[in-house]
Structure formats: C-alpha cells, structure tokens
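batch job 7 of whatever, protein = Phage tail tape measure protein
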Amino acid sequence: MSLPQQLMFTVGLVDQITKPIAKISNSLNGLTNDYQRGTMKMASGVAGIAASGYALQNALMPAIEMDRALGEVKSLGVRESALKQLTDTSYDFALKYGKSSTEFVKSSYDIQSAIAGLNDADLSAFTLSSNVLAAATKADAGTITNYMGTMYGIFKNQANAMGKSEWVEQLTGMTASAVQAFKTTGSEMSSAFTAIGAQATTAGIAMNEQMAVLGTLQATMSGSEAGTKYKSFLAGVGKAQDALNLTFTDSQGAMLPMVDILNQIKGKYGETIDVAEGDELKKAFGSAEAVATINLLMNDIDGLGQSIDSLGNVTGMQQAEKMAMDMTDQSQRLAQSWYVIRAAWGSAILPVFNKFVGLIADMGTSVVWFTEAFPNLTKWIGYAAVGVLGLVAAGGLFTLMMGAGKMAMVAWTVGAMAWGGITAALTTGLTFLKGAMLALNIVMYANPIGLIVAGITLAIAAVGALIYYWDDLKATMGEWGWIKAIGGIFSSVWGGIKSIFNDTMDWIIDKLNLIPGVDIDTNVASTSVASISAIEPIRSKAEKGGITQQISNANQQKSTHIASVTINPAKGDTNYMNFVEMHS
C-alpha cells in the first residue's frame, strides 16, 4: 500500500471513531443542558415559593410584631377592650413622635405588672405618659416605666385620690419641667427617687417639693447620690430639732417645708456655716450627708422656693409633649407612618393568616403520627427522597465536570493562541535575521577575503560552463593544426574530469531515487519520462462527517496536478535529470 493509500486508510479509520464520539459528545451536551434547564426551573419554582412567602410575611410583619406585643400584655389578664384602646393609642403616638408603636405596647407590660387595677383608659394613659416622658427626657421607655411604677408606689394615695390618669399626667409634666430646670435627665431623676423611696412622702412632703430638692442637689451630684443625701437629712430631722432647739415639724408632727427649715438654720448660724458649726450640725443630724444637703441648699434658698412653687403649678403633661415634639425627627415620623399603615392593614387579615398557618403547623402532628404508625413505609419514603436527592447531586457533579472540561478546552485554546503569537514573533525575528545576513554578506564581499571567496566561486562556475560547452569548442578549434596538438592534451585531462563528474551525478541521482515517487533513469536517454500519475485516494466507507468530510470539502475547493518535465542536455549528453513539478 502506497503512502497516500495508507494516509487515507488512517483518515478513514479515525473518522470511524470520531463520528460516534461526536454523537456521544452531542448527547452529553444535550444531557447537560437538559439538567441545567431542569435545575433552573426547579430553582425558579423554589425561589418563587420562597419569594411569595417572604413577601407575604414581610407585608404582614408589622401586624405580626404588634400581635406578639399585645399577646405579652394579654397574658397579664388585660381585657380585649383595653388592648384595642392601647393599640390605637400606640398608633397615635408613633404618628406624632416617630417612635415605635410595638415598643409602646411592650412598655405597657411593665406598667400593668407594677400597677394593679388599671382600667382601659388608665393603662393607655400611663403607657402614653411614660413614652412621652422618655422621649422628652432622652431616656428609654423601660427606665421611665420603672420610674412610673416607683412613683406610683410612693404617691399611691395621692394618685388614687386625684385619679390615676390625671396624676400620671401631672407627674409627667412635673418631671419634664424639673429635667429642664435642673439640667438633669429622666433616668437620673428616677435614680434619685429610687434612692429616697417613700421616706419623704411618709414625712408629709409633697411631690413637687421632693422633686425640687432632688433636682437642686443634682446640680453637683448624681441622682442616686442626691437621693441618699436627702434621705439622710430626713432621717435626722426629728432628732436635730431637739438638739438645736429649733422646730422642724408642725402641730400634727408633719415636717415643715424645706424652705422653712433652712431659714431657721440660717437664722441660727448665719449665711455660712463654719467648721465648728458644721460639727454641731453633724452631731445634731447624725450624718455628714445631712450637713452636705444643708450646705448645698442654703446657697440659694429663694431659688429653691421658686422651683417648688413652679413645679406645684404643673397640672398636665404639656411641657413633656412640647419637649418630645422638639426632639422629633420628621423622617422617623414618615417611617413610622408607613409601619403603622402596614400594621393596621395587616391586622385586618392577620386572623385569616394565623388560621391558615396554624393548620399547616397542625399537620406536623399528623406527620409525627404517620411516622410512628408506619415506620417501615416512612423509612422507604425517606430512602426514595434520599435517592432523588442523590440523583440531583450526581447530575450537578456531572454538570460540574462538563463545565471543567470546557474550561480546560478554553485554556488550551488560549495556550494555542499564545504559541501562535510566539511563532509569529519568531518568524518576524527570522526575517530580520535574513536581512542581517544579507548585510553581512555585503560586508564580507567588501573584505579582501570575501573577494577571494567570490573569485573561487566564479572560477568553479567557469569550469562548469567549459565542461558543458566543451564539445562545441573542440569542434570549432579542431580545424587548426596547432590547436589539435593542444586538444590531445586536453582530451586526456577532460576525460578524467568528465568521468569524475558523471560518477558524481550518478551518485546524486541514486540518492534522489530513494525518495518515494521519484524515479530518474541514469542510463537510457529519452526525450520524455513516465509521468507520475496522481494517486486516487482510497475513499472511506465511513459516514459523512468527521475528518473525511473535512478532507472532502477541502478537495472540492483545491485540486492538485502532477506532471513531469524532462530536461535534455545539449549535444547528445547522455546525462539528464527529471524534475517533478506540482501545480496547485
């Protein structure tokens, strides 16, 4: 089998393999695409369900949070009517001050726990007052609700006599005014009253006076420290009046106003109290804290009196509302208004939603019963679910492998492109090298050594020409006598040269004949040689497609003609060479 036949046989064999591989590759790609489409549809479905559920939950979240907060308050036995009024009040509060309505409802839990017997209006009033005061005094709602509970415990009789709702509004306004007048905070005022407890109230001191004294002391100390010092003073008043021979109580035994007590001490010791007088007061009251209270309050007795009167004139919570409104952020109001709208809208459909969700949750009980009643069936259902998930995972792994293969092909293509760039660069470099060699040759020929080499080359060319045209030259000069004699000498020399030349050419032709498809006759002179016929490639019986199809397409676009050219030396020279020329 000749080389072209071998080539086409190999191509046909390869084509028989590549065609099925191409089909398999297309099938695998189709399988991968189908799996990807199925996965995307499944993911889209799951995402759609999740998105719908999330959107519904997000839309109902304000109502859900409000329902949770109301549930906490309801657990304390609060009536539905009170919860409804509390909800409406929380919406009004949020819209007006830009605060959280759910936090408003949660704060009512502490109030309801601390104050028993609140009716529907009282619970809403206490909660509203606490949250407005928290906003006005820069305190958190939890601190102020605890403060309200503490104050109600201290002034319970006064609150019940006045009415809880009216009393808490007065307390709110009074506390806000004290915070503004004495540059303190709601949390510090709460700490002060927590420290003093009910001792001042038991002594018959009004709330406005207690607040004025504690507020004045907080100018130089914390709220808790002010409460401690005031408590020490109150504890020593009864004993001190006897020791100092002064009167600090009225005919019923109730303590006189703080201003009257301070004026009596001032009348005894003057504007200032020296060290000795301080020791005497310490001994009379029984503590240094009491003396410190007297020293601080005596600096401005008139101012203290004015503060007590001012706080006593407070009847409502207007001052607290004004302070809270001044610190309201309008952007927060906008955000809370949107929240309130969603909560109000969601509360209308929340019962239906809760019922539906509850039914779904109840299905968990049925599932548990099924697993316990049919353990084997449950097991096989579980196996089937695991199998399906395993198949899905296997498909994902297969897709991953196919993707990795495509990435590898891309990387190979990039590498081939890079190699092509390197080859182009080398070609450019070789072109430049050729130019450099030409320039070097020119330089060499300009050198004497180069000229010698060129002379030798010309001499060899001249000898070749002499050999080729020797017969004609000999025939021309043979008619002259003296030339014949010289011709004899040259004939002998020429015979030797010619023999060497023929042997050399025969050796070269023998070597050329070793090339497949080359057959040069060295013995018989002919005006023509046998043409080398084009070999018809063996047509593969493989299916269309693959490498054979590509070769066929190429042959339709490009044909090859093989012909022979014969060169006959002049004057009967028996040596000739056949050259094969291919035209494309």
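notes: The chain has 22 helices and two strands.
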